[in-house]
Description:
This protein is mainly beta. It has one helix spanning 2-39, and strands spanning 42-47, 58-65, 68-71, 81-82, 106-109, 116-121, 126-132, 138-140, 146-147, 154-164, 168-175, 188-194, 200-209, 216-223, 231-237, 247-253, 259-265, 276-278, 284-289, 294-300, 307-314, 322-326, 336-341, 346-353, 358-366, 377-379, 385-390, 395-401, 408-409, 415-416, 426-432. The longest helix has 38 residues, at 2-39.
Amino acid sequence: MNELLNGRRRRWSLIPLFLVLVLGTALIVHTRRSLHAATTANVVYVETNAGCGKDANAVFGWTNVGGKLSLIAGEPITTGWLTGGTGVCDYNQVKGITEFDADQQVIISSKNNPPLLYAVNGHSNNFSGFQIAPGGVLSGLIGSPYKIPTGTDPVSIGFLYNILSGNESWLGIVNKGADPGQTNQAPNITGFKVDSAGVPQAVTKAVVTLTAGTSPSQLITAAGSTAKKLYLGFLDQYQTQGESLAGVDSYKILGDVGLSLINFAANPVDPPTLGLALNPTARVLYAGFPTLNEVGVFFYDANKGTISFSTAFPDPGKGVGWLVVGPPSIGHGGSFLYASEPGSGTITVYSLTFLGTNLTQVQHFTLSGTTPSAGNLAFDPTGNYLYCLDSAHAMLHVLNIDQKKGTLTETNSPTAIAAGSGEWPLGLATGQF
Length: 433
């Protein structure tokens, strides 16, 4: 009997120790998470696209605290982080603004350790790579900038993490061929394989030549059927009406870094197509039709990769061309679509229903300032803010997002970006570091 009682006492005496260990572990985990949350910075990067001086192109970065931007600590204040390349300069807009109609000039791969940032250099026909340290500080990758063996005027970067054999990633560069300062080749897509350290290597056979004058501007990537190892790239084609070249190409990304065209789809009216965005929860793709002031809806097949045009919805702005779906803080990030319209300096907000196939306008918002021009869009990682780049005036707007309605307000003045005459800052990328 005494042994039984002693055994019970021993077991009961272990319970407080067990609780101490559990609570202590929970406290440590909570403390670590709190410290991580306290030290993680919400960061946004913009490329200056400096092209009126040799090798002056740079990336500037800011931290966002409560909607107010401050340069990243340790960043070169006057120059930003130089890319080692040259952007596109056009003092008198010789070719209009088509050479600046593009998206994803700057991208981030947050899955790499450390995270990576890549940025195009339109006039020097190369692109640059950086590692991202805690706090958002950049340092150049080995061998950066990287020459593009075939193609001129890089404007957009597509990326898929770790899909190639040997733990390598895929990177695709869209070369627009519209730089007024050089003799351009026909536009193309050039493929690279990227090692685990983030260093890209060109594959000479991984080049898709496009029709001259199609003016591609953005390459977005998506995973199709993972069982079939199907990876897709979608490319918009901007072209004058009536030439049957404007629309969206769907490509299969091959294991040798090449691309294979699956099919082409377009609005039957054949409008110029500018700006793409994927719905994160449905096989739906959105595209801007700037000459019609409409947003188009496309479907794509997860097993085949084929794309098809569905319908278009009116846009009250002028020249719709850049699109994002989110914000990431709401559900799976597929509740609203935001479309920027440079011609009217506005952003239109649509709610998405019926698996993203129906668009209902909930707001038509005008940026602050005199004759603003709305361009590239990106969400703050928290989903509380939407960034809008006004390239024409070298300004970065930070807009507050209503988490229930998706609507926008602008309570802070835009941030000026260091850019010279004839230079248009381009590209937005965001992350938490």
